[in-house]
Amino acid sequence: MLNADETEAAGDSLGGSGLAARLYDDLTRAILAGTLAPGEKLSEPAIARSFGASRAPVREAIRRLQERGLVTYAVNQGARVAQPSAAEFLALLDVREAMEGMAARLAATHMEASEVATLEALVAGHRGEIERNPLGAYLQDDPETDFHRRIARGSGNPILADLLCEQFYPRLRLCRRLHRTVQGRGREAWREHLRITEAIGQHDGELAEILMRRHIRAARAALQTALAAP
Amino acid sequence: MLNADETEAAGDSLGGSGLAARLYDDLTRAILAGTLAPGEKLSEPAIARSFGASRAPVREAIRRLQERGLVTYAVNQGARVAQPSAAEFLALLDVREAMEGMAARLAATHMEASEVATLEALVAGHRGEIERNPLGAYLQDDPETDFHRRIARGSGNPILADLLCEQFYPRLRLCRRLHRTVQGRGREAWREHLRITEAIGQHDGELAEILMRRHIRAARAALQTALAAP
DNA sequence: CTTGCTTATGGTGTCGACAATTTTAGCCGA
DNA sequence: TCGGCTAAAATTGTCGACACCATAAGCAAG
Question: From the UniProt record, which GO molecular function terms apply (chains A, B) (predicted)?
Fold first, then answer.
């Protein structure tokens, strides 16, 4: 049912030393990997047994997942893996537009030259992946998110960075799993990334914000049209 | 699907029927009222005794408070009431600028005429309070927040509304308690509210966003100068 | 064969208890 | 008198247990 890999390679682990923290990480990974399908019930005793733990830390991990929007909770009915609707997906992208726009603006005036360099390297590296797979989503799993995560952290605003990295990106991945995101925007998205990086490198916060907001709004529009005509 | 109907009158209570939910509400109120001072330790056994409950629901409530930023947590050391630094206050306002700007934009195209009317009535009602106390903070406790809360809900975006109402506004109140916010901006703030309301009434989302962002940036700047020269 | 009630099963919400760790109190020595 | 070491007390993290609720199975009546 649940395979517990300790690697933490994927990215967003907060891994405190406690048992509840490890459970939280493992459950997060299981949800994002699809091992726990959307809508599936999360039985506290079952999870506890499968991890050889008690219900207390399992409960704690699940409540945190609820707070992060990855599971839904009904009183006396327990938790289920969230099944974000298309409307929720779109709503999430609206908030994301606002927050990442601000992140880009702040990153433009806050990122060190070395951070900008790694960002540029990241985008340059993505180019090869695009060439190999021009129709690919580009935002399928992580290369896209890495770019955005880097900017979020580069904003120098810990509240903003945590909100984006710990709350929004996992939730978005769950949404993408459910609503097949539009394919084929890869090349354009990459160009937009390039321009955003340039604006940040020139410390032009205003432009970086505008470009980032456009970037996300374009993705949102593509999703909306994809949803309208299946 | 996210339902946002709350029977609670006062404001930010999520009051589920459970005991943990009531504890969460009471602790939130105690923190925001100052009954529990910033930095004070939150002893699980003590709180449990004082409420005649067990530690389990208390723990759950405290973990939720941590998730909302009202409490800091250290492993094996328990929880303390958060003591947001001035930097955190400013960071919070940056994120708020982005999110409330988006909220105003969405509210302009989403609010019903009746909702706009109640918003206008709210602002009109505030005028009297300003006249009675022109130097007053205007954002001291709730009249200010009510206005913003109404717009957040009026955005029609449940994710945005919940983030603002349940996470940001309580946290901001805690920040204001710690760092004496600037006094005397009441009249200008009120005028800004008026103009924002007008823009929303005319369904001018773009303008509403600009005005809202200016409004919050002005408050942030006032705070910054107040912090610089005591 | 279907419909409604009754019962059984499983799960959640809460409780008290225990080991491990942290904090406090007390003591000794300088 | 003060600083550091030791022991005691309190607190946290986790566990197993029990009542209440919800859903699923079984049964009776039509």
Answer: DNA binding
